[in-house]
Write a structure and sequence with these properties.
14% of the residues lie in helices and 36% in strands. By secondary structure, it is mainly β.
Length: 168
């Protein structure tokens, strides 16, 4: 099957695990990583992942026609997360098993707790902690959270470098 918008673009230092699948119009930023079993389907519209971000194991990223998926810089997308046609701001962390739906906008430095659901069109302000189904702002990110989120993305940049050097 030919895709209407083929166009995988990997910036310098990007790491893609062997079992990850990137399909269609997908751009992975500098030193970002996509891990085992993750699927990024840019077959309906573009998926853009900024620099130093990581898409962890078995995450699913997809779009609908006319609705791009944009992930900022230094973002962690946890294992089994599902992102669909949304925007994730710089420095945010999307917890394990969370779902963020079409046209939702997550601000910068947000923490979306594990197993949370951010519904279609929901706008989450910068520096928010979101939890629940449906996800609600339950607090503000503190310096302690920011340090944890920074360590998360930095550890994945380092891990990707190690895996790439071993050709894994």
């Amino acid at each position: 099957m030919a895709l209407e918008k083929p166009g995988l673009l990997l910036d310098e230092g990007a790491y893609i695990a062997p079992s990850a699948k990137l399909i269609g119009d997908v751009h992975i930023g500098r030193t970002s990583s996509v891990w085992f079993g993750a699927v990024l389907r840019g077959d309906s519209d573009k998926i853009i992942v900024g620099s130093e971000s990581n898409i962890q194991d078995n995450a699913v990223l997809h779009t609908d026609p006319g609705i791009q998926l944009v992930i900022g810089d230094r973002v962690t997308v946890g294992h089994l997360a599902m992102l669909h046609g949304c925007e994730i701001g710089n420095g945010s962390l999307i917890g394990i098993g969370s779902v963020v739906l079409n046209e939702a906008k997550i601000g910068s430095n947000c923490l979306i707790a594990a197993k949370s659901l951010v519904p279609e069109g929901k706008v989450i302000p910068d520096n928010s902690i979101v939890r629940g189904i449906p996800g609600r702002v339950v607090g503000q990110v503190t310096d302690k959270h920011l340090v944890m989120m920074e360590r998360s993305y930095q550890s994945y940049v380092a891990r990707a470098r190690r895996y790439a050097s071993c050709h894994v």
